[in-house]
Amino acid sequence: PAPGSGLMEGRFVQMAGAGDMMGMPGKTFSIWGYDNFKKQYVCTSVDTFNTHMIRMAGGANQDRTELHLFGEMDEPTTGEHDKMVKYVIRFVSDDEHVMEVHDEAIASDNNKVVELRFKRK
Predict the structure, then answer these.
(1) HEC states along 69-111?
(2) 14 and 5 in contact (C-beta within 8 Å)?
(3) Mean pLDDT for each consecutive 10-residue tract of the chain (121 residues)?
(4) Do 90 and 65 form a contact (C-beta atoms < 8 A)?
(5) pTM to 2 decimal places
(6) Residue 5: per-residue pLDDT
(7) Strand, helix or coil at 59?
(8) Cα dist from 24 to 19, 20, 82, whole Å
(9) Cα separation, 73 vs 13, whole angstroms
(10) By the 8 A CB rule, do 56 and 42 touch?
(11) 32 closest CA partner among 62, 60, 57
């Protein structure tokens, strides 16, 4: 679909990207939306780095410059299943956003384990 056209009559948007993580090329695909029944933003994402789907849900901060979503993910490098993580999506501009992944099991204010930058092509 054309940029901004959305999916399912505009109820959802898709995001596809490609880039490098730790020197390895990869691709990602996500579907984002707002669940009117649950009153939450929702996302389902897949990528070529993993074999599992990531699902997350949550809300926006007061000035709507960030989304704070929570979900479970598997961690193949450590063997952990269903690890609780927090995703912080910061909207830098209409063409750029940053996603941080925070490991909720780390008892620290500094539990960010990954930061990904997305720019519109």
Answers:
(1) EEEEEEECCCCEEEEEEEEEEEEEECCEEEEEEEECCCCCCCC
(2) no
(3) 67 87 88 95 91 92 95 85 92 93 86 88 78
(4) yes
(5) 0.82
(6) 59
(7) strand
(8) 8, 5, 24
(9) 22
(10) yes
(11) 57
